[in-house]
Amino acid sequence: MHYRAWEVVQVRAGIAYDCDVLVVGGGIVGLSTAYAISRAAPGTRVTVLEKEAGPARHQTGRNSGVIHSGIYYRPGSLKARYAVKGAAEMVKFCAEYGIAHAVTGKLIVATERAELPRLHALVQRGRENGIPVRELGGAQIGEYEPEVRGLAAIHVGTTGICDFVGVARQLGAASGAELRYGARVERIDRRPDLGVAVRTAGGDVVRGRVLVNCAGLHCDEVARLTGDDPEMRIVPFRGEYYELARPELVRGLVYPVPDPAFPFLGVHLTRGIDGGVHIGPNAVPALAREGYGWGVVRPREVAGTLAWPGSWTLARRHWRYGGGELRRSVSKRAFATAVRRLLPAVDDGDLMRAAAGVRAQAVLRDGTLVDDFLIKEGARAVHVLNAPSPAATASLPIGREVARRALEMLGSV
Hints:
Layout: H1 5-8, E1 19-24, H2 28-40, E2 46-50, E3 66-67, H3 78-97, E4 101-102, E5 106-110, H4 116-128, E6 133-137, H5 141-144, E7 152-156, E8 160-162, H6 164-175, E9 178-181, E10 185-191, E11 195-200, E12 205-213, H7 219-226, E13 233-239, E14 242-244, E15 253-256, E16 268-271, E17 277-280, E18 284-285, H8 299-307, H9 309-317, H10 319-330, H11 332-340, E19 351-353, E20 357-363, E21 374-378, E22 381-386, H12 395-411
Parallel strand pairs: 1-2, 1-12, 2-9, 5-15, 12-22
Antiparallel strand pairs: 3-8, 4-8, 5-7, 6-7, 10-11, 11-12, 13-18, 13-20, 14-17, 14-19, 15-16, 16-17, 21-22
């Protein structure tokens, strides 16, 4: 059945609002925003629309569960400030509500001489971001990880792990917001003089004074439905993981030295809160925004990615890097070879396929990968347009910032 937008969803003068703030997206950032609004302005009516049957089904629930320290991010950036602050707050939040977590620390290991300058640069960046870092020689790595080999390493003590899905559930419960699951947004009517009205796939119409877009993998689409030009597109990258059949080989968290040209951290080893060790992710283009395997293909979404000029520029610039990632995607042997740079004892049979995730990476028209968190405003709308890792770690500060903008907007209408 087809509808014209004005027949389906329309904000009309004299019609009661269902809520003050309407949040689209029930991941950890959307739920943190609802939570922050309730803390900053008790009595504000908040409704959260989530298309899935429960919270945190995508980026929040499909990552390695790491509470990042903030060491990687440019000093002064939102990522640096929010990750450092968010890591401490996340540990406190988990402790307060009894959510599984641990502060384990992690190693960042250089396995080649060419990586040593980048490792030393990370030490300096960590200090600029206020993060305690211990430098290690190759012989000292074994104090933390007996099976890991490298030329040098740094130990970052503030890194941890937690159950981010549990955090998201608690944020939703503590927010007092109305949480509507199975509510896929189909149409939005935004009137600057009145507010926003959203029609869901089930036919419900929800009216609010201000809209907050925390739709993650679909945030650019929601922005365009609102009538705003996000000036970027989400290009989905699938991160594939393996589980280690011999988890005793790894005590905690072990990372390679990242390539500064990319926002991806490389294949790393993570002992999770369940005691298992996950290895990954790589980063390959996904053929759907929720393309968790090569068999998931959505032609309309692929066409949308290919129609964005930045996608082609990105491919031309980084085809060599992408080729290596694709090779590790289709070949367990190639993936295991990458892992053995850090963990020589691993063989191909130690790797067992695990659930994949998809990173919602914002790409500009000129092919630039948006490196920092990106939050933009329109009339009666706040859009979170780039919030991949470490957004889960930083979700409490991000939620407060988005809530501040939404409440300021609410106070001015």
